[in-house]
Amino acid sequence: MATILYGRVSTIEQTSEHQLTQARAAGFQIDDAVFDNGVSGVSTRLVERPEGRRLFDKLRAGDTLVVRWIDRLGRNYDDVCTVIREFMSRGVIIRTVINNMTFDGATNDPMQKAVRDALIAFMAATAQAQAEATKAAQRAGIDHARANDELSYLGRKPSYSREKLGTVRDMLTQGVAIAAVSKATGLSRQTVYRIKADPVAAETLLAAWEARPFAAA
Question: End-to-end distance of the chain based on CA atoms, in angstroms?
């Protein structure tokens, strides 16, 4: 029985090293890992993606699949639910780094199944809604940057990077205190408070600056 971490790596996700570090910090002993670089397109189902197929081939009954959150397992509500049910039917245990959730097919009690399936459905729906909000914020930021030639229209350049923004979101989701998030990321408490208060606005601002041809300057 193996513990396998699955993650996605792209311009809007964390690095593979960061995800491994987070999983181990959460107490998981990772035996193997599969990372998807996102080149197959945002609408492609997990089973159709090269690394997704590799994950399906690797997992065996009794294995534990570790993911940062269940949105790693699909691009929308239907895909996430289908993948989780498929893995549970195979005898795979699914665990999340955030909030240490566990899903498996061990129970035969109909009420316990109903509660489990309702929780999976709620989490999948929430993940899709959050993904759509993030994409909308990115589009808004890019459109804003393209429509305005002066940097003054964008406001002050954000002090956080794409990776730090993801770290702040992860830690806040896990209930980490503002002071601890600030210390871990090197960002001011005020910045962390702003991200917590309006994560969509934080994403929009960062996307707008990234869309500038000289954003890295």
Answer: 48
**3-106 is classed CATH 3.40.50.1390:** yes
Residue by residue, what is the 3-state secondary structure of the chain? Answer: CCEEEEEECCCCCCCHHHHHHHHHHCCCCCCEEEEECCCCCCCCCHHHCHHHHHHHHHCCCCCEEEECCHHHHCCCHHHHHHHHHHHHHCCCEEEECCCCCEECCCCCCHHHHHHHHHHHHHHHHHHHHHHHHHHHHHHHHHHHHHHCCCHHHHCCCCCCCHHHHHHHHHHHHCCCCHHHHHHHHCCCHHHHHHHHHCHHHHHHHHHHHHHCCCCCC
> Sorting pLDDT into bands at 50, 70 and 90, what band is 146?
low
Compute the distance between CA of residue 87 and CA of residue 20 in angstroms, rounded to an integer. 21
pLDDT, averaged across the chain: 82
Domain locations along the chain? 3-106, 125-211
